[in-house]
Amino acid sequence: MFSLVSLVIGLAAPQAWRAHCPSSGRRVGRAAVLAAADDAPTAEATAALAYGAALASAWAGESPTMLRELLSADAAVSTPLWECKGEQAYEDALLESVDFFSSYSKPTLSLLSSEQIRPGVARLEWMLSVEWPSIWRARVNILGESELELRSSHPTTLVTAVRESWHQSPQRVFASQVLPRWRDLFSLWNSPTAEHVPLRVMGEREGYTLAWMPPGLAVQAEWLETGDLLLREQAPLPPWFAFTGEVKRTEWYSTVSPGIVERSQTVAELPGGMVQKAQRRRWIMPLPVRYSTADISELPPLDGPLSDPDSNPDEEGEETPEETPEGIRGQSVEYVRQPGRLLAMRRISGPPSNKAVLGAAQEMAAAAERDGLKVVRQRGRPVVYQMAYDLKVGFNKRRQISMAVWLSVPGLLQRNEVAILIEQPGE
Questions:
Q1: Which tens digits make up the pLDDT trace of 217-273?
Q2: What is the pTM of this model?
Q3: Which of 35, 159, 262, 359 is close enough to 282 for a disulfide, judged by CB 3.0 to 4.6 Å?
Q4: Superfamily of domain 200-422
Q5: On the CB side of 95, how many CA atoms lie within 13 Å of its CA?
Q6: Between 2.30.110.10, 3.40.50.2300, 3.30.70.2860, 3.10.450.50, what CATH number should domain 4-180 receive?
């Protein structure tokens, strides 16, 4: 349980944010360009990516020389928290912020996209992750944009102005991601505070919220269900074959919420060229942002256990191999670079039963299509996402899934959301 002193420190932290984090949305470390807006980017988009990479390098604790070469001496920077004038003022503030947010781990920056808005102006989209220096080590993830004004100055293009925006206001970021949540207090004895996958709210509509989920790296496990399994009630916990790591008391674990389960209609092939109605159940477990910048080849293999860790031991004291449930046509687990998704979402009350999840999905699909949106369907049914915020998936320091906690919460306090996939413009 937190001490009174630590809680007071947490409540006073907005002033620390202002004092130590003037670079706001761009305080972040290792860079990973997950997507570029154009196959042949413009000079503006290329310059924006170079600026993002230089900024990420500075946040990683490396020399700010590249950043210094790309910023004009009189560059103006504006963020949701502060404004400053001059490259040197920005560099000084950035280095102070790097030091403040590096107490436990390095900040992390993922560059999501860059594009030219108009001649001389480009936009960067990014996701940042920092660890707030507190006893409970809250991980803060911010989805944001930087609009850059550029000036050609041979042989480089200089950034003369930066305007940033976040997916949440600074007050909302602090209240929802820094202050300890009751779920964290409730489960502190058995699992660390979870970082949340950030969502950009695009608008509130009648019957649903339109939101964008950014791309990222995830462990993805799936199988095909047939027969009675199609409507069997199942917990959103990851399947046993996704767990490849061990739990050790001496380690600090990185946990992520929500647990995400994708369900879509398909068919399973049978002998003789016949097919059978099936449902693809796909568990999507985003890696903590600090790990998501790695190349997939650098991550530990997903060999998985040969048996269910909850199965009964045999006579020799070893676990018996897990039998695939009847009705399962195959199973797999792999690392996947998840694309950005446009979602229509709604919170449901009570347990996430099949009736509640699928009923909400059908209602949102009808409402979204009335609003002129195109719902992505598989064999006539919307692609459905169940998002369980009372579930968190834990990764050990070797970046392996080693724990999952689904809290037992009173019905009125449960947080479960249902989403359906919406086609994005240009797809």
A1: 999 999 999 988 888 888 899 998 999 988 877 777 888 999 999 999 998 887 777
A2: 0.82
A3: 262
A4: Regulatory factor, effector binding domain (3.20.80.10)
A5: 11
A6: 3.10.450.50
